[in-house]
Amino acid sequence: MSAKIDRLTASTLNRFSGVRLDRLVDYREDASWQKQQLKNQNTRLVPLWRSRCLVEKTADQNYEAVYVHPSELQQYNVIREPTLLGKKDDQVYFAVTVNDQQREHLLKHHNNSEFSDLRILAGDMHPLKAGILAYAKALHYWQHRHTFCGTCGAANILHSGGHRMVCSNDECGRQTFPRIDPAIIVLVSHGDACLLGRQARWPINRFSTLAGFVEPGESLEDAVVREIWEEARVRLKTISYRSSQPWPFPAAAMAGFIAEAESRDCEIGDNELEAIRWFSSKELPQLLAKGEIYMPNRVSIAFQLVSEWYLGQTGDDLRQLIREMQPSGPGRHNKNTC
Ligand SMILES: [Zn+2]
Q1: Using one digit for the tens of pLDDT, what is the confidence trace for 228-252?
Q2: What is the pLDDT of residue 1?
Q3: How far is the CA of 166 from the centre of ligand 1 (A)?
Q4: CATH of domain 180-325
Q5: What's the first-to-final CA gap in the chain, in angstroms?
Q6: Which of 107, 160, 243, 331 is the most buried (most CB within 10 A)?
Q7: Gap between the Cα atoms of 75 and 35, Å rounded
Q8: What is the Å distance from ligand 1's center to 175 Cα?
Q9: C-beta atoms surrounding 41 within 10 Å
Q10: Do the strands 193-198 and 275-280 form a parallel or antiparallel pair, or are they unpaired?
Q11: Where are the domains positioned within the chain?
Q12: 3-class SS of residue 49
């Protein structure tokens, strides 16, 4: 990986990004085509139960997404019509919300499967499959949270293959589209050091980049400047966009930046963080080796930003460094990331 990596490549390195699924936008209004696809042997459903995804543990302690054929659920009444996700390698994918009874049926017929939290497992899955699950989970969450019209309170009805809702009250007819909350996440640097913070609720000694939601009336850059001042009382000299990541926990889209601070003066600004600290690129591996700090979750763009900064500073791959600190090899139990 080059320190001057182009932005398209940079975003594909972030987990859940770069799936490049053909989203079949032209077929979203074609209900009969979708019905036909649900009878196709190649079609697969991505089942979701209470925002959890169906996975199975593999022999090497990783996780595999479990997709099911529509015929496996045909004996049950559907909660909602399956949502058209798209096509990859001649296979059409739909997301489907399952109820408790359907959940039991699927667990019974798929050995070693479980409905699990994607956020925990994503690092131990094939990136393409994690990306499809993230896409399905995001739509599932939006549909679940918009069952009723926000204007008149009548029931919403799914349209456009699950990508649009229309109020069932003819006098209202309000349309609702999938919602995403834009957020910024920033690695602040000064000289050979970067600024990381930690929240009290995080695992002990975990530090990460600073982040926050974009507020109404702000550009992404305005949000970067405001958040860093609010959280760390740091003024920025320059900011540079790096990459982005879908983050369906529950509905964010993260825009990652590296910013240069005017000085190392800092203090905790609001109540969001319990500690902030500058870490030099020289001391970072030493602190990691001693277990005095842990890096952010390695599926997050936060880890990617720290890695990109560290590579630029030292020419070394932080991920490889952490792997070497753990002789047992990479995995979700790696102690240097949380
Ligand atoms: Zn309405």
Answers
A1: 999 999 999 999 999 999 999 999 9
A2: 46
A3: 8
A4: 3.90.79.10
A5: 23
A6: 243
A7: 16
A8: 8
A9: 7
A10: antiparallel
A11: 16-145, 146-178, 180-325
A12: strand
Closest CA to 257 of 227, 283, 233: 227
- Say how far apart CA 244 and CA 134 lie, in whole Å: 14
Structure tokens at 102: 């359907």
Length of the chain measured in residues? 338
Q: Do domains 16-145 and 180-325 have the same CATH topology?
A: yes
Confidence label for 338 from pLDDT (cuts 50, 70 and 90):
very low
CA 157 to ligand 1 center in whole angstroms: 10
User: Mean of the pLDDT values across residues 75-103?
Assistant: 89
Cα of 79 from ligand 1 centre, angstroms: 21
Cα 279 to Cα 301: distance, rounded to the nearest angstrom: 19
Q: How far is ligand 1, taken at its centre, from the CA of residue 158, in Å?
A: 13
pTM, 2 dp: 0.90
Indicate the CATH number of 16-145 among 3.40.1000, 2.60.40, 3.90.79, 3.30.1490. 3.90.79
pLDDT at residue 35 is higher than 70? yes
Structure tokens at 261: 């601070």
- Contact between residue 28 and residue 93 where contact means Cβ atoms under 8 Å apart: no
Phi/psi of residue 153, each to 5°?
A: 85, 0
Expressed in angstroms and rounded, the spacing between residue 174 Cα and the centre of ligand 1 is 5
Q: 24-31: long-range contacts (C-beta < 8 A, 24 or more apart)? A: 24/84, 24/86, 24/87, 24/92, 24/161, 27/84, 27/161, 28/84, 28/160, 28/161, 28/163, 28/164, 29/159, 29/160, 29/161, 31/161
